[in-house]
């Protein structure tokens, strides 16, 4: 019975995973990039466009010792728009660390950049911690191989336990 419920939850999670990114509106003020998989930084930095010069970037969960000069951003003149966050070690901490940056800057709209399989869980945490901020998901879409499905199952199980923990905490 438990295996059937877990399988059903995994299927629900799979259904929530975005398969593409729509165009961001110009009004998006901040870009939050969660470290982890490849292509997240490049995808996030590509959102710093001349059409939206007000945008700023926050990279959450950066490994200690990494400096801004280590980032793949090409233009040194644009680096002032990038802030690195070193405090987060998991998705909830990413949301908390990012919330401080979002509030400090007074942002009402942000783009959230993470892997496609990580997006449902990330959105849930961010919406719980900064519900007044409009979040635009920017998933980094990966090839659907065996590793991708393993990540998806792990993320769905972690989201299930996080949801249960939140419900139990409210009792």
Provide the helix percentage.
Answer: 40-55%
- Tell me the series of helices and strands, N- to C-terminal: HEHEEHEHEH
Give the name of the CATH architecture: 3-Layer(aba) Sandwich
Q: If strands are numbered along the chain, what order do they take across the biggest sheet?
A: 3-2-1-4-5
Q: Could you tell me the CATH topology label.
A: Rossmann fold
CATH class: Alpha Beta
Q: Mind summarizing the main beta sheet?
A: 5 strands, parallel
What's the total number of strands? Answer: 5
Mean pLDDT: 81
**Percent range for β-strand residues:** 15-25%
Radius of gyration: 16 Å
Count of discrete alpha- or pi-helical segments spanning 4 or more residues: 5
How far is the first residue's CA from the last residue's CA?
25 Å
Number of domains: 1
CATH superfamily: HUPs
Q: Given the helix and strand composition, which structural class is it?
A: alpha/beta
Task: Tell me the overall shape.
Answer: globular
